[in-house]
Design goal:
This protein has no helices and 3 strands. The protein is mostly beta strands. The radius of gyration is 15 Å and the shape is elongated. This is (California timema) hypothetical protein.
């Protein structure tokens, strides 16, 4: 369960900021939902870091429950 829906995507000057996301609670909006990471192709030898920020309203709490979590690439040994 995702307590907050994506309602505002902030772009920063950071490298790879196109994948950063901000999820904000808004009065009168739904209080749960789902989200997916964007799909990008990275050049060989390059990595990508995406920052997800969840902002709760007063007396709210953010709860993330992952029902699936997949990573690409080689498993570290």
């Amino acid at each position: 369960m995702l307590t907050l829906l994506e309602s505002d995507v902030r772009r920063t000057q950071m490298e790879h900021a196109e994948c950063d996301r901000t999820f904000m609670s808004r009065p009168g909006s739904l209080q749960n939902g789902t989200f997916n990471a964007p799909t990008f192709t990275n050049p060989v030898g390059q990595s990508r870091q995406c920052v997800y920020t969840f902002v709760a309203g007063p007396r709210q709490r953010v709860e993330l429950v992952f029902t699936a979590f997949n990573l690409r690439g080689m498993h570290p040994e």
